[in-house]
C-alpha cells in the first residue's frame, strides 16, 4: 500500500484515501479500497427533529456520495503542477500546494472532499428524502424605488434551481449580480421594500422556516469576546435549545459541536478581538460561529460569504468543513461566495453563477468548465476557474484592454453583455438546463415532511442564562467595569481632597453644593468609558434577534443586562461614595450616606440605560460617545446649578428639558439629603441661623413641591427602567425595519414587463 502523502497513480489514489478518511470520532470504518462506504459500519448521526435528538443511520443515504471520485483529469486545467506530472487530486497534493501539513485536512473524509454529491440524481418518489429539499422556480425579486413614481429595480430575474440534503450549493457572481438577493429570498430574509414573485417550496410545500430548522450566518458574526469557546457554546445551548430537552443532551450537543468543528484544543481560550491578542484566528472564529448555529441541528444552513477575510488555506478549511457538515448532518447548505481560490475550487459541489440577476449556469461545479468551453470561452490552463468565470460575466471589466501583443482572442475583447447572452443561451439550450428543469418538477411533486420547530428555551432559563452571561462578560471586560472603577476612584480622590473637610460655615453652603454637583456630574461623564462594551453587547443581541426572528429576546436581554449590572454598579457607587462623602465631610448621619450612595447608584444605572438606548440607534462607538456626551451636557445645564430653576426660560429649557434631565432630580435629592436638619450660621452678625428650608428654597430655588428626596429616588428608578424599555422598543423596531416580509409576500404572480 503506497504512502498516502504522495499518490502518483489511480491505484495509489485509492490506497492513499485509507489515511483516516473514516474519521474515528464519527465511527466510520475502512473498506479494502480505503474509501468509506463500501464495507463501513453504519454511522449514526444526529438529525434535527421536533422531539429533540433523533438518531438515524446514514450509511444507505450516503452510499452514492461515497463512491470513488470522478476522473481527476477534470481538475487538470486548474492544478498545473499535477497536470504536468499527471497526478490525481488528493488531500496530500492540496496540502503541499498550500504549504500546510497533510494532517490539517486529515479529519475530513476523502469522499466528502472530492466526490460529487447526489444533488443531480433523480429522486425516488417512493422514498422521500430525509432532510430539507429547497426548490425555487421562476424566482424574480424587485426592489421598490426610494422615490415616488420610480420604477422598481429587478435584482433577480426568473431564477430556477434547487438545493438538496447532503449538498453544498455555492452561489457566485460579480458585484450586483443578485447572489445575496437569491440567498436572502431562499432564507426568507428579504427587506420589506423588496417584492418576490415565483415559487419557493420546502419539501414540496410552501411553508415558513420554523425556529431551529434553519440557520442564517452572516460574514461579520458578532461573538462575545470575553467568553471562552466552551462558555459561548454552553450559554448558547441553554438559551437556544428547547426547555424539554434534558441538560445532559444539551451538554452532549456542545461536546459534539466542539469535536465536529475541531475546537478541542481551544475550549478554554477566550475568543478575544484577534489572534494577535491571544484570541481566535479568523478561521477559528468562522468554525465557532458554525458550531453555535449547529447546536439546534438545523436542516438548512444559509451562509453569506463564509470565506470572507480568509486566506487560501482558511478558505479551503471552511469549504471542507461545510462539505463535512452536509455529509454527516444531511444538511442542505446554500452559500454565497465572491470567488474561490484555486485550492478551494476542487472542493466546490453545486454551483450557481449569476450576473445582473440572470442565471448563467446551474449544476455541478465541474460542469461549469465544459459549459464555458462550449460557449466559446474555454478556461486557460493556468488560470483559476472562478476568476475566469467572473471575469467573463463581470460588466465592470469591459474597459480592460486585451493583450494586443500576443494577438490572442480573449474574453476581454468581448463585451460582457454579449458574453452573458451567449452563456445564457448556451445554458438554456444544453442538456444540463433540461435536467435542472426536470429535477425541479420532480422535486416539487415529491412531497416530504413539514418541518416543525422543536421549541424554545423557557423564560426562566433564558433570563438566567442571559443574566449570568452578561455578568461574566462585564466582569471580564476591562473597559466596562475595571476601567470605570479605576478612573472613578482617582476622580473621587481628587474631588475629596479638593473639597476636603468643608465644615459648617456660611461659605460651606455653596461649597457643599459645588462638591455634590461636581461628584455626580463627573462620575456620569466617566460612565461613558463603558460605551464600547455596551455597543458590543447590543450588536450581539441584535444579531440573535435577527437569527431567531423573535422580539421576545430583546426584552429578556435588556432586563437581564440590568440585573447583571446591579452588583457591579453597587460596588462602583459604594467605592466612589465612601471616598468623596467622608473626605468632603458631608452630613455625618449614616442614613444620609446610604441615600448618597443610592442616588449615585441610580445615576450609574440611568447612564447605562441611556448608553444602551443610544447604542441601538448609533452602533458606531465614536458617534455614540459624542451623542451621549452632548446629551449629558444639556442635562447638566438645566440641572439647577449653572442657572437656578426660576432663571431658566420657561419654554423648552424648563418645560420639558429640565424635567427630562435625571441630573435635576439627582442633585435636588442630594441637596435635600445634605441640608435637611442642618443649620448654618448667617454671614450677618447676631442674625439667626439659616434654616434648611431657607437654604433649599431661597439659596438653590428648589420648589417646595419637589422637596422629597425619596420621591426623587423613585423618579430616578423610573428613568433607569424607562431607558431600558426604550432600548427594548428600539431593538423591536430594528427587527421590524430590517426583517423580511413573511410568506404573505410570496405570490406566484408574474411581474409586468415594465417593472
From TrEMBL:
The keyword Zinc does not apply. Keywords: Membrane, Transmembrane, Transmembrane helix, Transport. It is a multi-pass membrane protein. Residues 1-24 have a biased composition (Polar residues). It comes from the Eukaryota. Pfam families: ABC2_membrane, ABC_tran. Residues 41-54 have a biased composition (Basic and acidic residues). Residues 1-72 are annotated as: Disordered. Residues 134-381 form the ABC transporter domain. The keyword Membrane applies. It is found in: Membrane. The chain crosses the membrane at residues 481-502, 514-535, 557-584, 596-618, 624-642, 713-737. Belongs to the ABC transporter superfamily. ABCG family. Eye pigment precursor importer (TC 3.A.1.204) subfamily. This is ABC transporter domain-containing protein. The lineage of its organism: Eukaryota, Viridiplantae, Streptophyta, Embryophyta, Bryophyta.
